[in-house]
Amino acid sequence: MKGFGNIAEMMKQAQKQAQKMQKQMEELQNDLKERVVEASSGGGMVTVHMNGKQEILSIKIDPEVVDPKDVQMLEDLILSAVSQALKKSQELYQAEMGKVTGGLNVPGMQGMFGGM
């Protein structure tokens, strides 16, 4: 029965590692909420600020781009800036998550801690 002691010890170590990783992930989620990415379109006519949890914090629109006769252009600029900000935020999330998981792609880990 000596072999079972080794297995029990390995399980205990794995549980400690999982708890450590969970704590790091929780800290990361708090950190990402404070980290901000910026993206713009139309040469800076529309600027979006988004945090690392994919929450839009602000949208700034240069008054010069507001043309009631061309609402479609403004909509396209906003969509473009939001899409770029989302991509940057996702890249930030993946980079930071990689630091915690050691580069391992842990299935379901993103959803477990309120990520993407």
Structure explained in plain terms:
This protein is an alpha+beta fold and 116 residues long. 59% of the residues lie in helices and 16% in strands. It has helices at 2-34, 71-101, 109-112; strands at 36-41, 46-51, 56-61. A 3-stranded antiparallel β-sheet has the order 1-2-3. Helix 1 (2-34) packs antiparallel against helix 2 (71-101). Mean pLDDT is 86; it is low at 109-116.
List keywords for this structure.
single chain; 116 residues; alpha+beta; Ybab, Chain: A; three-stranded antiparallel beta sheet; 3 helices; 3 strands; rod-shaped; disordered C terminus
Q: Would you identify the CATH H-level superfamily?
A: Nucleoid-associated protein YbaB-like domain
Beta-strand percent range: 15-25%
Q: Biggest β-sheet: count, sense, barrel?
A: 3 strands, antiparallel
What overall geometry do the principal axes of the alpha carbons give?
rod-shaped
> Helices and strands: which structural class?
alpha+beta
**Radius of gyration over C-alpha positions, nearest whole angstrom:** 21 Å
Give the topology string: H per helix, E per strand: HEEEHH
Number of strands: 3
**For this entry, what is the oligomeric state of its chains?**
single chain
- In the predicted model, the low-confidence regions spanning at least 5 consecutive residues are 109-116
Query: How many domains?
Result: 1
Q: CATH topology, anyone?
A: Ybab, Chain: A
The span between the termini is: 45 Å
How much helicity do the residues have? 55-70%
Q: Quickly give the CATH architecture.
A: 2-Layer Sandwich
